[in-house]
Amino acid sequence: MSTLPPCPKCQSEFTYEDGPMLVCPECAHEWTAGEAAEAGDKVVKDSNGNPLADGDTVTVIKDLKLKGSSLVVKRGTKVKNIRLVDGDHDIDCKIDGIGAMGLKSEFVKKA
Length: 111
What we know:
This protein has one helix and eleven strands. A hairpin with a 6-residue loop joins strand 5 (64-65) and strand 6 (72-73). It is elongated, with a radius of gyration of 18 Å. It has one helix spanning 33-39; strands at 16-18, 21-23, 30-32, 58-60, 64-65, 72-73, 78-79, 83-84, 91-95, 99-103, 108-110. The strands form four sheets. A three-stranded antiparallel β-sheet has the order 1-2-3. It has 111 residues and is mainly beta.
């Protein structure tokens, strides 16, 4: 049984050593053993500083124009069942009438 830590990105148990680095064969993430200990979980906060979690309901606090479209996400739109992700946009969600999209946490408040 391996004593290597799981991948901090996808939690895969199939990590292996490649010199000083640890590698995940499932998502191709590479890290050192020291990084995994100090990385910790990133806390995503809304515009008021409240921590967000997967499955939360949030409200949009500003009209947001969609790039490449004439659609606008209006202020006060409730978004249910959000999913937190890494990257430029912190939140993946589905909005009624618009579809799947990414939102930045600075433009929402916890409902």
